[in-house]
Specification:
homodimer, mainly alpha, Farnesyl Diphosphate Synthase, two-stranded antiparallel sheet, disordered N terminus
Chain lengths: 324, 324
């Protein structure tokens, strides 16, 4: 991660965190803030994912797990967890665990998605996919082990986080990952290839497939503090809207960007005859829709009426305007 | 399950539970007790696994999940959870959730194990395996969703179980399923095919691959109550020993039983040149070893010094002597 190793960013980030002015509006230093947070996340992941020194996994499994998780990925979900925790002034240790747990679920889903029986993709984050590098059996196991590890991270046997928070975070993550969340969305995706699909069905698919985990990221970050019910609801709306916007932008980028920029094979949706927002509503309308969703996400944040939503606001802007 | 629909068993079970005499020794009515417990487990699984009426999963995913879990399996792990809970006079609602959660982890591991990139098995519990029936992609997703659902079952948003118990059960299950448990054991198994392997390595592989989840079943049942540290340790020993005995017996049965009796393809270990206890120490010595482990398991139970270990004792006897 370039941002992670850039000391300039780090200093800027420290300055911005020390200065209340920069947290209050458009001048928020997202690259600096992200660099700081990503450093925490990368260090934690390196320690927790089958670390060869402290907690090795047998027979090459650890290597495959680490390959799937480390040195790649935008870490969008962890950043959302940490930003939401910041918004509610929550427990930062708990949020770091939640951030890594969500990322492990995301990473496992990519490993399994890329396998020949699913999307059969050979390139991910600019590198060979896990099954190409380690074989299908090891990729299957690595994905399975990453999912289990996510729940292990959420339930430390120490005083980092109260038991009630551990249980709540496990519940949120399990629901977002399971058949009424990510896995369910992937099943709809599988079933929809080459089928006519309505806008409502496309929304439902993405709400589950991508949206559930993005929304859970925000809600899990919030669950590291004690926001009131109205703030919880507003943050949940923000997360859902952002999840949808993310997918709309993803569909747009699949058409307008190249594989090098994406770090994965571009143009795959059309090649596989997958329904997308672009195929359904066209390129320009999709871009406009993404902007509408962004503005809706900002409304939700205002409705949350929380002190420190600068990072959440900046992340939404970055997400929707990336690559355009 | 034949035992499940046999009213004679049910009445006997009720009688046995009402009579302290039958809980105190050799006269314990295991078939009756099991029938009662299995009825609870089957009903709960039917309600909780993507139930088409109350909690449907999209796009055929629910069907694949239910196919993987319902109407089959000996439910050994759930019975161990419930027996251990009984031994510590624990919370029966919590134990039922724990029993089903462990079974979901077991079921998902079978679905993934059977896939072409792993064991490539077409027959399981006398039926076509999940990927044969639903395709590989759906099998992969169903396994993934079953793992998530296990953690969802352990974290109900109601008053069934205190948060501390939820978190503890999630921790135990995640560790047993992950890279230092079941998934790790499978990775060793993968790497060991066709390789020379020592007795120590074979023990290590099975301790993780099968033993971890069996031991966790006992410990999770115990965690539904409040056993003292010495009882916890003894139950942990019992679970570990039983897990090992189970695998030794499995290896023996792979040689001496036919596919119809096993409900899966017999003789596969030898055909795939997999190291087993039989290939390492011979058939007779393996049988003797299983009996030694059984006696060790009974010693551990005595050391636990708990009131009501009749079911745990009877399960150990049944497990080791099945099919011989």
């Amino acid at each position: 991660m370039a941002a992670n190793s850039n000391p300039g960013h780090r200093n800027k980030a420290l300055n911005s965190l020390n200065s209340p002015k920069t947290l209050s509006g458009a001048s928020f230093d997202l690259p600096g803030w992200s660099a700081l947070q990503l450093e925490r996340v990368e260090t934690a992941l390196k320690n927790w994912v089958a670390c060869p020194q402290t907690c090795p996994a047998p027979a090459g499994l650890g290597e495959a797990m680490r390959y799937a998780v480390l040195d790649g990925g935008k870490r969008l979900r962890p950043l959302l967890v940490l930003a939401a925790c910041e918004a509610v002034a929550g427990n930062p240790q708990a949020a770091l665990r939640a951030a890594c747990a969500v990322e492990l679920i995301h990473a496992y889903s990519l490993v399994h998605d890329d396998m020949p029986c699913m999307d059969n993709d050979v390139l991910r984050r600019g590198k060979p996919t896990v099954h190409v590098r380690f074989g299908q059996a090891q990729a299957l196991l690595a994905g399975d082990a990453l999912q289990a590890l996510a729940f292990e991270l959420l339930t430390p046997d120490d005083s980092t986080m109260p038991a009630g928070m551990q249980a709540l975070l496990c519940r949120m993550l399990a629901q977002a990952a399971g058949f009424q969340g990510m896995a369910g969305g992937q099943a709809i995706d599988l079933a929809s290839v080459g089928q006519p699909i309505s806008a409502a069905q496309l929304h439902e698919m993405h709400k589950l497939k991508t949206g559930a985990l993005l929304q859970a990221s925000v809600m899990m970050g919030a669950a590291c503090g004690r926001p009131n019910v109205s703030a919880q609801r507003a943050l949940s709306d923000y997360g859902a809207t952002l999840g949808l916007a993310f997918q709309v932008v993803d569909d747009v980028l699949d058409v307008v960007a190249d594989s090098g920029t994406l770090g994965k094979t571009a143009g795959k949706d059309a090649a596989q005859d997958k329904p997308t927002f672009v195929s359904l509503m066209g390129l320009q309308a999709s871009k406009k829709y993404a902007q509408e969703l962004l503005s809706q996400a900002h409304s939700s944040l205002r409705a949350a009426d929380l002190e420190n939503t600068a990072a959440l606001r900046a992340l939404a802007d970055m997400l929707v305007n990336r690559g355009f």
